[in-house]
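Weekly puzzle thread! Below is a chain. First person to post its structure in token form gets bragging rights.
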Amino acid sequence: MIHKAKFIAADLGASSGRVMVGQWDGKQFSLEELHRFPNGGVSLDSGLYWDVLGIWSHLQEGLKKYHARYDDSPEGIGIDAWGVDFGLLDKRGRLIGNPVHYRDGRTRGVVERFFQLFSERDTFSATGTQTMAINTLFQLYSMVLERDPQLQQADTLLMIPDLLLYFLSGEKNVEYTEATTTQLYSFSKSSWSEEILLKAGIPTSLFPQVIMPGTIVGSVSKSVLRDCGFVSPIPALSVASHDTASAVAAIPHMDGDSVFISSGTWSLVGTEIAEPNLSENARELHFTNEGGADGKVLLMKNVTGFWILQECMRRWKLQGHDFGWADMIRAATAAKPLRSFFDPDEECFQVQDDMPKAIQEYCRATGQFVPDSVGEIARSAFESLSLKYRSVIEQLELLIQKKIATIRIVGGGSLNTFLCQMTANACNRLVISGPAEASALGNVMMQAVATGYLPHLSAARVALADSVQCCSFEPHTSDAWDEAYMRCEHLQKDMTREN
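Winning reply:
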């Protein structure tokens, strides 16, 4: 019998989480779901939080389901999750409060106050990170300004996947790809930026060592093993723990002529480069540099993705209409094309109680057709996102001085064939979609490398190409898409001038 090495991958997104088992048989990877659960912010009068202990209980449930299904212990376990958010531990290693959600309003006005101390240009030069109010830097600086007692009590900061790995193993580290999402990590120094921390008044002692993807940090603790039914030790591994880095690691045939779109609540649009791009052009175009799984740098832009449609669905459900994705796509397909557009990254769409109304108000204010039906609103959102992709890709081509021939979409959005074809049409480029569970696959691949089953990530990518099926979408070009793109660009310039 062929020995199949099994690895547990906890893949945590901002709207859902999965505990998967990945198998490597010496030639191909396979992936099986053990446990899936909803995730999201928990709102209180005091703010918006993550239920990190609820996530931890779901992770344990996944381990228990593995034990019930198989008669052995896995070769390892790794965790990947979203970036920027963190938990604080006291001197005894106890969690101080619930981690705050990145969409909480505590960073309003904080960015401007920090840049009075240290300019945006100097901050980008030091970190290569796109300025966003959600970044760890500004979350922590808001705590400094408020003299938050939790920050005063804190001994250690751990990013969300590192915090959960700590719950598993008791080891305190921050993994490299997660560290690069914070706007506190210096690529040039390969460590935390003491200059920025000191400027912000954030204690440097909070930050543990940064470790690279593929590090075996220790073993799952005896108490966790006992509670989940295991007898044999299980290695706890640090993978490329930012889910985007794991997703990009699992893109077959990713090359210099390709752009990736990791598509979910957020869309991360970018390409792999050898060194960070710290140019003024990159800063002005709001690009970011983040660590890749194999030591490369991901030059990319964060684009608001399915968040807008998810919020539309949530609002419609409150009104008694429980639309699913298939319902929205069906309604959008029937709606007339290319009538109204918006920039998904406009501030008015970031924290919104009534997303359909926000879209209508934007279209009305910009003198466009005002969508009214579910299909018209959904079509406007899909088209606006695909045209935003085109804008970002053209900016990226300017930065890397190279033409992009292929768009490779991974993540949940790769299953949305309606958007994939629309993206091919809007961008006039070949789109290849898949794999959908890229973050989990990247997680498993890195574990296979760390435990010696594969020599390096390049070999794992080659094996992955033989393990998954991808779909191709040829562009159907038309002058209408070019005209729509020009309209979008003019709208964006007009809104920029008004702001």
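Puzzle host: Confirmed. Bonus trivia for everyone else. The chain has a mean pLDDT of 95.
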